[in-house]
Design brief:
Blueprint lengths: L1 H6 L3 H32 L10 H10 L1 H35 L4 H12 L3 H12 L4 H25 L3 H9 L4 H37 L7 H10 L3 H29 L4 H7 L1
Helix pairs in contact: 3-11, 4-7, 4-9, 4-11, 5-7, 6-7, 6-9, 7-9, 9-10, 9-11, 10-11
Length: 272
């Protein structure tokens, strides 16, 4: 019992580890905000170029209820688009892992779609599904999420150990069993790496699509409206919330990664 207790990190050691991980990030953020505020004041930078952090925070406090209400509409579109992109990306990746000969043309088509700029997709999807429809916003987000999920998941499904495949074949495992018990667990780290990228891309896709038209209480519409007035500190307050949404999505995916695959070596390296 005493040997096991000696191996466990103490509370003070865990606290120092957490401080060592997050303190530099907090200090960097404070320094950047301080330099930003000082530069705007000293050089008398016009608001239309960039407002000061204090002005942005004041605008955020004043419009808190409106911005949070707009954010709920945007969050729903982001989550729906992320779900659609992940489901289709994983399904197509499973098909490609089962029939590798299809990977060439399918990946080529995916690359072509992924190269389409958001500013081109947004008006098209708005025209297809309606300017105020959540489907048009989620559709653009799904397209942006689909490609990284497809490529990374396909790579994870195919990069399995030949020894493990031989063991499954020696046990007369069916292709479905090989996919569920061997390929999918091996692809989880690749999938979560794609989700970390896709979660932020989904936020960008929804915000840009809303900028081209959407419900009056959507976050992208709020940013566009405030910038057109022009009330740039209020527009920047909306941008601040959009950035926070992207960070929150990234953090949620990281948390799910820790919960669903605590056995992965990369997570043990982070905790050591």
């Amino acid at each position: 019992m005493s040997v096991q207790a000696a191996r466990l990190p103490s509370a003070g050691s865990r606290l120092r580890t957490q401080l060592g991980r997050y303190l530099p990030v907090a200090v960097t953020a404070v320094v950047i905000l301080g330099v930003w505020q000082l530069a705007v004041v000293v050089f008398d930078v016009p608001t239309f170029i960039v407002p000061s952090p204090s002005a942005i925070l004041a605008a955020f406090a004043e419009q808190f209820t409106t911005i949070m209400s707009a954010s709920r509409i945007t969050v729903l579109a982001v989550l729906l688009g992320l779900l659609m992109g992940v489901v289709w990306g994983v399904v197509v990746a499973l098909v490609l892992s089962r029939f590798p000969s299809l990977s060439g043309p399918v990946l080529t088509a995916a690359v072509i779609v992924n190269c389409a700029p958001i500013v081109a997709l947004a008006p098209i999807f708005n025209n297809w599904f309606g300017v105020t429809s959540i489907v048009s916003k989620a559709g653009v987000a799904a397209v942006m999420v689909f490609f990284p999920v497809l490529v990374n998941t396909t790579r994870g499904l195919l990069q399995v150990s030949p020894l493990h495949l031989e063991v499954m074949q020696s046990l007369a495992a069916k292709p479905r069993q090989v996919s569920l018990m061997l390929r999918l667990p091996n692809a989880l780290p690749f999938l979560f790496n794609a989700l970390k990228l896709g979660s932020t891309l989904a936020v960008i896709g929804v915000i840009v699509t809303e900028y081209f038209g959407g419900p009056s209480n959507a976050l992208g519409v709020y940013i566009a409206y405030q910038a057109a007035l022009p009330r740039f500190e209020y527009a920047w307050a909306g941008i601040l919330v959009a950035s926070a949404l992207g960070l929150a999505m990234f953090g949620l995916v990281s948390l799910l990664e820790r919960l669903l695959m605590p056995w992965h070596a990369s997570l043990h390296e982070e905790n050591s």
